[in-house]
Every structure is written in structure tokens, then in C-alpha cells.
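Weekly modeling sync, notes
Attendees: S.R. (lead), two postdocs, one rotation student

Agenda item 3: backlog of single-chain predictions. S.R. asked that every request posted to the team notebook include the full sequence so nobody has to chase files. The rotation student volunteered to paste the first one in as an example of the format we agreed on. Action items at the bottom.

Example entry:
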Amino acid sequence: MNEQQHATNSGVAATAPTEIAVLAGGCFWGVEDILREVPGVIDTEVGYTGGWVKNPTYEDTHDSKSGHAESIRVTFDPSVLSYQDLLENWFFRLHDPTTLNRQGNDIGTQYRSAIFPQSPEQAKIAEQVIARVQASGKWKKPITTSIEPASTWYSAEKYHQDYLKKNPGGYSCHYLRD
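Predicted structure, as returned to the notebook:
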């Protein structure tokens, strides 16, 4: 392959289609820590979405003051990881989707379990996955995960990005369940 062909082929590979998923499953540190390692995940970012306060800070999200959920925006390669697999095999295993507005010791609407579909197709898939997870009997209580409209994404403060990577051993109530 000559240099021009190599450069062209590399450029095509670099622009492969990606998809975005926005998920909330409790404290964003633990969700990000698990999802960043999933094959097909290209990038993760933690932030806030689903509320009414513009440009919220971490402090704004506590005590349900802003309506925002601590969330993660996942950029992934759909040829490696489908949205369905991301939800069914990762998201619904890394947190307890039956606890309303709570994960572990973290309590409040900012810690709710929610999916923010970025397209009508994602919304349909989310509904199907929730129905399958509920019907599976894996969870003895009803699934409380909400499907909420996509809304403005606000990136969390820099110190929250990759928090558990920068602070190994930091607090997390997230782990993969069988």
C-alpha cells in the first residue's frame, strides 16, 4: 500500500460512525469507572442532565435542588458494542435499578436510575431492554429506571472526570452483578 492509500484508509478508520448513550445509575464516578473499560467504548464523560437549572455545579445537584441526575455520556462504536448490549449487559449489571433515587449510601433524585435516549431508536431499545430485565426475574423488586427525554448536557467539573482513575480506592457503590 502506498503512503496516499495508507493515509486515506487511516482517515476512513478514524471517522468510523460512533453513537452516544447518556445514562444515570447513581454516583457517576463508579458508572464511569466500569463503562470506560467496556470493549467498544471510545470515551466517557461525567456530567449532569435531566434538570431545570442551567449550568449546574456539583453542589447544585444535591438535595434535589436542580432536578439533574449525575450522568455519564458514553461514546461508543456500534460495530463493536450495540446500544442494547450496553444497556442489558453493562448498565443493568453495574447498579441496582430497583432502588428509587438511591444507589448504596447515595440518596436523592440526582442518584436516580435513568436512561436519556438520544434518538427514537434508542428509546425503543431502552423500553425493550427494561421489559426484558424486569421479566427475567433477576431483580425481585420492580425496575424503577426511568426513560427521560434527552436534554441539555452539562459537563461536570474537571476534578470529577476520571475520578476513580485519579483516586484509586475512592468511594464507589458500583460493581458488576451476575
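Discussion: group reviewed the output briefly. Strands lie at 19-25, 41-49, 69-76, 102-103, 106-107, 113-115, 146-147, 154-155.
Action items: rotation student to repeat for the remaining queue; S.R. to check formatting next week.
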